[in-house]
Design goal:
By secondary structure, this protein is α/β, with parallel strands linked by helices. Helix content is about 50%, strand content about 15%. About 35% of the residues are buried.
């Protein structure tokens, strides 16, 4: 006899799943309504564990300021670390500062540099990820962990498969990213042929705020600013 899962029958689980659809829809509607009004923004990703006295915190702050000075707002995951630095840079530069917060059992808490009317809360990672991809004019990816890599590779996959329009994906910190990029080239591309050579052009590695802006400006000299799907 098959035991109940967590004390519930499959029918009870199915019923709960059906009702959860309405909560998921609510998160999508709220996100679409609020983010469609904010204008062109760039998302900054990176570790929640980065402390304010670490060099990539300050670098992220400087990158965010520079992005705001060139007319974009900043979207982050709304938490501490690199996310806080991105929102802080936007706030200090007088720009739009958006936080897409996620409920987590550890690490995540709202940072104080998000605009009061631009802080959104999500229970579902996949809904939150859609918001990043739909409303970002570029991804700036600082050193981070699994969550950062998840956002990075999802964006690369969606662009590679033409599910969304192409936008700049900029990896900041060659000391952190060069090993990964080299592995992608030598293992995925050269040894196993699991990607194509043009796929290597979907990301660029830089070290300074000026290089980030140069890539963004060059891209949008050619393409229009708009939601990605």
């Amino acid at each position: 006899m098959i035991p109940k899962q967590g004390g519930k029958t499959w029918n009870e689980i199915k019923t709960n799943d059906s009702w959860a659809i309405f909560k998921i829809m609510g998160e999508f509607v709220n996100g679409y309504e609020k983010l469609s009004q904010i204008g062109p923004c760039v998302s900054i990703f990176g570790s929640a564990r980065t402390k304010p006295d670490m060099k990539y915190y300050k670098l992220t702050e400087d990158v965010a300021k520079k992005i705001v000075d060139h007319g974009y707002g900043i979207i982050t995951g709304g938490g501490p670390g690199i996310m806080e630095a991105g929102n802080k840079g936007a706030h200090l530069a007088g720009g739009t500062s958006v936080g897409l917060n996620i409920e987590l059992p550890f690490e995540q808490h709202d940072n104080p540099y998000i605009d009061n009317d631009k802080s959104l809360d999500f229970d579902y990672f996949f809904v939150r990820k859609v918001m990043f991809v739909k409303y970002s004019q570029g991804f700036v990816v600082m050193p981070g962990g699994f969550g950062t890599l998840d956002e990075l590779f999802e964006a690369i996959t969606l662009i590679q498969t033409h599910k969304i329009d192409k936008f700049p994906i900029i990896l900041v910190g060659s000391e952190f990213w060069s090993g990964l990029v080299e592995w992608i080239k030598t293992t995925l591309l050269d040894s196993f042929k699991n990607i194509s050579a043009p796929d290597m052009d979907l990301v660029q590695v830089v070290d300074t705020p000026e290089e980030v802006i140069e890539i963004l400006d060059k891209f949008y000299d050619e393409y229009n600013l708009s939601p990605n799907f």
